[in-house]
């Protein structure tokens, strides 16, 4: 009889442990929201920190000038292409090294079209396209 109660106690303990493990795994957060928040917070903090590095004017004037420059830079990255960009259109974009304080520049872009194959051109660092066969 004593042996039987030990077996029941061990099985019950194992069942409780397995249930607790399953419950913990089922309710665990995946960190996806946390990681996105860290990225957004980092970008906002970086922008604010760079604005605070400027000196010689009032904080409000410095912040306004920095924000205007930041927005202009973000918009300029898409410039230099006649006809602009189409919203919600996927593109194949080729980056090149740039000079000065800008690390990269967009060298070429191709809007992605249905029925077209895109590939690296032979003996060239550009993208070629041809109709699918």
Rg (CA only): 28 Å
User: Which ranges are low-confidence, i.e. pLDDT below 50, for 5 or more consecutive residues?
Assistant: none
How would a crystallographer describe the biggest sheet? Answer: 2 strands, antiparallel
Distance between the termini: 78 Å
Averaging pLDDT over every residue, what do you get?
Answer: 75
Order of helices and strands: HHHEEEE
Can you list the strand order of the major beta sheet? Answer: 1-2
Provide tags for this entry.
50% helix; alpha+beta; 4 strands; 3 helices; 133 residues; single chain; two-stranded antiparallel sheet
List the helices and strands and how they pair.
Blueprint: H1 2-27, H2 32-53, H3 59-76, E1 91-97, E2 104-111, E3 116-120, E4 127-131
Helix pairs in contact: 2-3
Could you explain the architecture of this structure?
By secondary structure, this protein is an alpha+beta fold. It has three helices and four strands, in the order H-H-H-E-E-E-E. The strands form two sheets. A two-stranded antiparallel ribbon has the order 1-2. A two-stranded antiparallel ribbon has the order 3-4. The protein is flat, with a radius of gyration of 28 Å.
